[in-house]
Design brief:
Order of helices and strands: HHEEHEEHEHHHEEHHHHHEHEEEEHH
Structural class: alpha/beta
CATH class: Alpha Beta
Helix content: 25-40%
Strand content: 5-15%
Mean pLDDT: 88
Length: about 450
Amino acid sequence: MNILKKATRRDVLRLGVQTAASSSMLATLGTYQRAMAAVDTRGYKALVCVFLYGGNDGFNLVVPRSSPAYNTYAASRRNLALAQNSLLAINPLTSDGNQYGLHPNCAGLQNLFESSRMAIVANTGTLIQPTTPAQFRAANVPLPPNLFSHADQSQQWQTSIPNSIQPQGWGGRIADLLNAQGYGNPNLATNISLNGSNIWQGGNNTIFYTLGENGAPVLYDYQYPGYRSGTRRASFDRLLQQATASTDGNLHFREYTRSVNRTIASSQYVNNALNAAPALTTVFPSSGIGNQLRLAARMISARSQLGLSRQLFFVGLNGFDQHDNHLSAHGGLLSQLSPALKAFYDATVEMGIQNSVTAFTASDFGRTLSSNGTGSVAGSDHGWGNHHLVIGGAVQGRRIYGSMPDLSLNGPNDAGSGRIVPTISTDQYSATLARWFGADDSDLDLLFPNLRNFSTRNLAFV
């Protein structure tokens, strides 16, 4: 039941999509009455953004197996093409007349897809409105600024507002809504990053909390409380107590003390919850992405101890900007990603919460179909459209959503130089995830201002 006054919620949301000139307006967010039902928080749900930094090559992640589609792919990719007999077969319930396979290093993803726990969202990218290659070349429709730029496109993916420079991501805007309606735990943010700073989780009046691979970061003197019989820690505690009780006029001194106290309290709160949570037996690969997803699973396991019914996690994997040595480097990264995502899903099954946790991939952009060199060390350049993965028990899996593009160079989907024009926008992709997470359908146009330009608001993959 939605009992929030509509004008109030819309005001709260509008504050999240103002331009950078609106800093004074953002300061007024606290004057709005608390929202009561802008996000449905019944039960537990978690979203996990898996960002593939550098521009993952989706066209070597999902590849046509049947001829002549494979022959078209191989002719365009030349020395970047995977061998047809190496592809891991998938059998989508949807069909465009072609057969498809996954990269040979993606056995875990193949298992998830074939068991209907993973969906592929085809040819997705930053768009302001539906755009054809001819319109792109003529520049007679509004286009996302600075296409093919890492910094700009990764930001636009995370904000889902490509036509405006924004410091807030759509995950952060949802956290703002939750905060505005009085939801949350004062001891811990709804947004948790396992991969440092990011834009997706940045909000106007909420901040994300960053964890290391082993839990909450702890001040040195608190990591080793027995060092020198605890004398150093005791001295540090006395200094903090004195500073907290101080009434002098040094604002910097008092704020620094409050910050240190918050850091200590948050670290203890999170690590105590993790220690009290049920242990997981699922084995994760000992890679960077595996360790991040392992800790995300542990945080989900501690959801009762943390007192949260909504969580948004951010994890990341670097290295996808492969202008050379593409085949080897890309295969190596996928050999890390695939088992980590499979282990994460298995952990949610172990906890009995797989229907309440959805993981999804995002990336700067796709890669060009064309190769930039000769031999096995050749690479690809910055593209546009890309294939993405959505994983979880609630996912309507074993399906390909959207249209797989024609992979011929200078073909009907090529904007030039092998750059495929997206046919699904980041707004449609993100809005589908936000709606599942509990955002009100009537608020999606404010969370994703360009969504109104697309006829399909919900892709229904989850």
